[in-house]
Amino acid sequence: MADQRQAELQAIHQAMLPRMEAIIAYLNAWPLDALPEAAQPLQYMPLSLTEIASAVDWFKQLSVP
Length: 65
Known about the structure:
The chain is mainly alpha-helical. It has helices at residues 2-16, 20-27, 44-58. It has one domain (2-58). Helix 1 crosses helix 3.
């Protein structure tokens, strides 16, 4: 089960990483307090990627100390 969850995190990481530059460029078109409602979920993607990256790249496990 843990191996499957780690593989899922790796797949998400691999799918998101190449898109981060475009997502950040898109979000940078507005000040944070004027971000359109439709774009608000995108602001969480870079934050999610940093959480996933620590498990995938650094610790290579689900549980991050």
